[in-house]
Amino acid sequence: MIIPMTGLRLPMVFMLAAALLQAADLPAGSGRETLIRDCTGCHRADDFAAYRHTPDEYRSIVYRMGDRAQAPARDLDEITAYLAKNFPKVEDPSKVNVNKATAKELETRLGLTAKEAEAIVAYREQHGDFHAPGDLYIIYGVDGRKIEAAKDKISF
Known about the structure:
With about 160 residues, the protein is mainly alpha-helical. It starts with 8 loop residues before the first helix and ends with a strand. Strands 1-2 form a two-stranded parallel ribbon. The protein is about 55% helix and about 5% strand.
């Protein structure tokens, strides 16, 4: 027996089919199907390969989005593990990770004064990791023009 597709069902079928076609490029493994089921309603499956985060960053992102999707914690943990395994953050050796660099490294590689570099490290230790160049602009004693000039040399 063939059931005719009504107005709302047909677009949903096409959306699901499109998501599954995009998902064909995702690496196989534990968490893949959960990611497809829980995340492709809002995200294109082929965009996941462009994301590069640490496991902690993925966990934070996935849990924040999981609150909106009302996904269970076990699904979120599985998605986090899948993303961290298949799309890990890779450090670019030509850039300075401002969340890990010493004051001396910041000074030499970014063209900052010793005082500015120390202010960045002190701020980081007190407030936590930076996420964007703009986070560095608010540090008292650091010349924002130098940060702007060096933003292509900075990673997080």
